[in-house]
Amino acid sequence: MRQKRFILQENEIPTHWYNIQADMPNKPLPPLNPATHKPLDADDLSHIFNKECSKQELDIEHAWIEIPEEVREKYTYYRSTPLVRAYAFEEALGTSAHIYFKNESTNPLGSHKINSAIPQCYYCKQEGDTNVTTETGAGQWGAALSYAAKLYGLEAAVYQVKISMQQKPYRSAIMRTFGATVEGSPSMSTRAGKDIITRDPNHPGSLGTAISEAIELATTTPNCKYTLGSVLNHVALHQTVIGLEAEKQMEMAGEYPDTVIACFGGGSNFGGIAFPFMRHNIKDGKRTEFIAAEPESCPKLTRGKFEYDFGDEAGYTPLLPMFTLGHDFKPANIHAGGLRYHGAGMIISQLIRDNYMHGVDIPQLESFEASMIFARAEGIIPAPESGHAIAAAIREAKKATEEGKEKVILFCLSGHGLIDMTAYESYINGDLQNYSITDSEIEKNLEDVPQFDINEIEK
Amino acid sequence: MRQKRFILQENEIPTHWYNIQADMPNKPLPPLNPATHKPLDADDLSHIFNKECSKQELDIEHAWIEIPEEVREKYTYYRSTPLVRAYAFEEALGTSAHIYFKNESTNPLGSHKINSAIPQCYYCKQEGDTNVTTETGAGQWGAALSYAAKLYGLEAAVYQVKISMQQKPYRSAIMRTFGATVEGSPSMSTRAGKDIITRDPNHPGSLGTAISEAIELATTTPNCKYTLGSVLNHVALHQTVIGLEAEKQMEMAGEYPDTVIACFGGGSNFGGIAFPFMRHNIKDGKRTEFIAAEPESCPKLTRGKFEYDFGDEAGYTPLLPMFTLGHDFKPANIHAGGLRYHGAGMIISQLIRDNYMHGVDIPQLESFEASMIFARAEGIIPAPESGHAIAAAIREAKKATEEGKEKVILFCLSGHGLIDMTAYESYINGDLQNYSITDSEIEKNLEDVPQFDINEIEK
């Protein structure tokens, strides 16, 4: 019988995360203090984040960072996740490609997010914090953070993007099941939220806005740290367990990916699966193609500008060197709430500049069409976010078929869509639409980005 | 690092299902034709079910029935499921017991139901059917059947218990995602449904009612077979993959269960995990205790009567020898929709008479309290049905702690509760209640059961 699932033994689960910064030929530009425009150090970051993550964030020296024993202990509750050869999906497509997916949907809380929630809460606990706060879009990160906080006896407060909260009411129930406090963002509980509501009472919220609120809470609450589910370097670092496992599992399958694909919001799931393979492009001359699948309606990778910009709407974060649509960009209300973010992480942005990877834009309807094909073949209903990766995989599979090639495609199934059934219902009923955006709209939105001469800083 | 998850290689997945009927010292009494009161043979059943399942239903000779190669091929998309040593749950309870759970919640569609949906649809396809129909309560079975039907290119029509459909709207969306037609039951699309609605326009539905409707559709539609997700012998037979895997996995863990626990609706998940272990009680003198956890509000195992009764409300099924509360019993609207059924399967009923197992009654609030403890420890939100097994496991763990024993407890986590978040929300808000039932209510409901002298039939 042909083998479909490749699973590692507990003792094969990675002992170290992979820090691609150490191997990058051009390091990411430094984050800047918005007041002084001076590069930040770990001490600056640790007013918001725990110390260890602040250190990891700026570490450009160590390619391998040890996973604390207690974090590995928690990982082994659900890892390794299966690497699956998607024979049924291949047959549904009639493709000559070999398609593998790394299934992070069977994780606690149904997505990859738990991989970083656990270490972030672990470090906070170690450093004497009692509270954590965060933002969440679709709620995948908020749910994971709520559970991880409970594991370490921390109180969690989550700002959830209002539109996503309304679209996916079950997710806030999940967070409350784990004892978290959940606020729809923009909320009246912070100055940032109040300002936004005052300007625009019907603001649907965005990750940028929710981040502003959570940071404000963290900086005004004793022993409370802010945690982030994507964008930052240390989050992608934690997620590299995905790719490191997948590397061993692909070896078990006797293949190596020609193409690695993941959906793209802030870059943590993408970096998680891609970076461990990308190191072989950087160091060993491999020529794997890396594709980040973003929504057509939020095209920062393909149509954004590389600039120093804020990570949040209100401008509380450091200035980050990123491909951005402008920090006050208001993404369309697509169901892939986790992809509604205006910028790309610093590492990713540099890797795009250096041509190690590229983005593709997926219209909402194409993502759901792809998800339906996948679900009916493999029996797993994908998160709308993951649907973007599947759509990109289908495009690549079609190309391979046309060229008659047995191309090996690996994508990350970052989560399941069981909490997103209203979105599927809308799709089936023909009520979903695509949202595109014009160049002039993008131009206009970029006007608010602080202007720097990047070349100047690179010197 | 202590090992938590035990997973089999693909070539260790069972090649045969275990048919406990062949080993039972006292065989189940035969199902009877309601008109003639004569025992039924496989031909009689095959008007409703596919031929192979009809044969399996009455097979008291073969202890091992081969799993068709094509079914095993589908099983290996998601099996083996993990056997997990629940250290975090043990720590939350402060128990001396060793608690293991077999995690069927990571299956496609989130429950054990797929294990029987696949072979049932496979056999229908093999025998030339084009359509399948069924009933579903919470929707776990309907979802699994919809996907399995799609895998084999069959059209599926599902009657979902109306109250469950309202409580869990996402489940019908899942079924529609897989292309199934979904009707709330009682519906106006069958005579049985119309009769019930006429008598009681606000009838919330029950599995018994939905079964009547599905059978009526199957018997009035060409090339359409009825499929059932529990109660019958062949369904429990297919589910024995769970226990057979668990047996090997417990061996990997170096332990053998003192107690095996599962929630109980019709008996398929219970039989699935219990029968393979029970064979060692029957044949090898093991003394494992088997506990079926049923809702306090639907106590057929502990307070029902052993009688010949119909499997459905309208009286379309054969007469089955079962512990029953009466085929027109209206269970309270608890959230564990899959446990709202009036009777126990034939095999289970005989095993209870012969003291190989017993039932326990779990109040709704106790089941949710148990689920909350489990969720916060293990990160998996259990289906409300599975919450009953967890509550029973907690009771047993407490006993073990009081006795200072390292008792080994194994339970089946039959499914996750991500589609049941409204139930958790109600529980957290204090809006849930217990439902008990008086002896005289049970007595009264049993009056409609056809009266036979069981002793007479046993001769």
From TrEMBL, chains A, B:
<dbReference type="Pfam" id="PF00291">
    <property type="entry name" value="PALP"/>
</dbReference>
<feature type="domain" description="Tryptophan synthase beta chain-like PALP">
    <location>
        <begin position="78"/>
        <end position="415"/>
    </location>
</feature>
<keyword id="KW-0456">Lyase</keyword>
<keyword id="KW-0057">Aromatic amino acid biosynthesis</keyword>
<comment type="similarity">
    <text>Belongs to the TrpB family.</text>
</comment>
<dbReference type="InterPro" id="IPR001926">
    <property type="entry name" value="TrpB-like_PALP"/>
</dbReference>
<dbReference type="InterPro" id="IPR036052">
    <property type="entry name" value="TrpB-like_PALP_sf"/>
</dbReference>
<keyword id="KW-0663">Pyridoxal phosphate</keyword>
<comment type="subunit">
    <text>Tetramer of two alpha and two beta chains.</text>
</comment>
<comment type="pathway">
    <text>Amino-acid biosynthesis; L-tryptophan biosynthesis; L-tryptophan from chorismate: step 5/5.</text>
</comment>
<keyword id="KW-0028">Amino-acid biosynthesis</keyword>
<protein>
    <recommendedName>
        <fullName>tryptophan synthase</fullName>
        <ecNumber>4.2.1.20</ecNumber>
    </recommendedName>
</protein>
<dbReference type="InterPro" id="IPR023026">
    <property type="entry name" value="Trp_synth_beta/beta-like"/>
</dbReference>
<keyword id="KW-0822">Tryptophan biosynthesis</keyword>
<comment type="function">
    <text>The beta subunit is responsible for the synthesis of L-tryptophan from indole and L-serine.</text>
</comment>
<dbReference type="InterPro" id="IPR006316">
    <property type="entry name" value="Trp_synth_b-like"/>
</dbReference>
